[in-house]
Amino acid sequence: MNNQNEFNSSSESKRRFLPIALVLVFLVGFGVTFACGLMLGQQLGTISAVPESEGQLINRGLVAQVSKNIDFGTFWEIWDFVKEDYYQQPVSDETLFYGSIKGLLEGLDDPYSVFFDPEETREFNSELDGSFEGIGAQIDVDESGQLLIVAPLPNTPATVAGLLAGDKILAIDGEDTTGFSVDEAVHKIRGPKGSDVVLTIIRDGLESASDITITRDTIVIESVELKMRDDGIAVVSIYLFNEDTSRLFTSAINELLSQGAKGIILDLRGNPGGLLNTAIDIASAWVGEDSVVIQSTRAGQQSFVGSADARLNGLPTIVLVDGGSASASEIVAGALQDYGLATLVGTQTFGKGSVQDYRELEDGSAVKLTTAEWLTPQGRSINHLGITPDFLVEYTQEDALADLDPQLDKALELLDR
User: Fold this and answer.
1) Active site includes 357?
2) 224-353+375-415 has CATH 3.40.50.2000 classification
3) Is the peptide bond preceding residue 90 cis, with omega within 30 degrees of 0?
4) What region, left, alpha or beta, does residue 416 occupy, with left being phi > 0 and alpha being psi -120 to 50 degrees?
5) Domain spans of the chain, in order of start
6) Which one of 338, 357, 365, 368 is the catalytic residue?
7) Alpha carbon 357 to chain centroid distance?
8) Residue 81 and residue 248: Cα distance in Å, rounded?
9) What is this structure's pTM?
10) pLDDT digits over 151-200, tens only?
11) Is there a catalytic annotation at residue 338?
């Protein structure tokens, strides 16, 4: 399939693109790397330093060709020191090898550039396929390194337990999360269906931290929901941009147009992102063949354009966004805002505009590397900034408890003018 995602990832001839504009952390596994950040890249060959069965290291001499500025003899000196003198023997060569590669990526100080060993790669790929076991939340780290909930996914254990976007995770099963990467946190939070995990969280407006026990379950996301109101307004909620979203959205368009919808509310709140091609398909319903998003790399810029099927162009549209709207969500919202095709209501979006290239290696491991940044059609940067809505409207915990939705109310007010 030729889906582009915020990631770039690929396995041999299979090419698919998935969200990562945040790490879409489906706390089910690795935190789905957020919406719009993953692009599937080509499969890489293997240069291995892992010993063969007889115990001899292979390709050890190739490191001299890698850099003229670094003496890799230091690496092998430490390797030998660990192998000979570390007190808890035996030490697995594979463990040291994969740990070294993880350290290489950690040297970039980029939470989205990570290495997965073969087992972690299998778990990560299962999440990209859309079904996994966990709590159903997206997590990330803020600029201070603090783990936080970006968006609990609807109808998942995270939502049932009361997690909210913006909750800071202080501990996982009593273990302090200071210094944790997103992938480390997801690895500890995920687990088999029916098991429990305890998150210690602190929330704005609360004076002290609290423990929340969450029972893991199988997470399956129905990505699109259509509700036709009696007043002729169609509310289309998109929870994730996955492989089924374009088809479901097309079905929703057919339904709302057949019912003579007078306006649309596109609800992207809490949507952590997903496939780039899917985001382009959705935006195309308004922008047609115009540019939807610009990818900026070291080599220059590339514009991704929509299709000619602008069936919703001219239909009054409001887009609802919040701090859980990331990556692919921000691409769609930003494009519609740039062209004046929709009014944005809600709060500042997450600000995940980096692109990760996801490549599987021949030994079953994989690497995810930041390679580009997304810009809106007018060249606005999304990364770390997010999208500012045209109307800033808060949605508080008190509103949720009282079954109120001031953001939706504002959208309806604007469409009624």
Assistant:
1) no
2) no
3) yes
4) alpha
5) 224-353+375-415
6) 338
7) 13
8) 57
9) 0.69
10) 788 889 999 999 988 899 999 999 999 988 887 898 899 889 999 999 99
11) yes
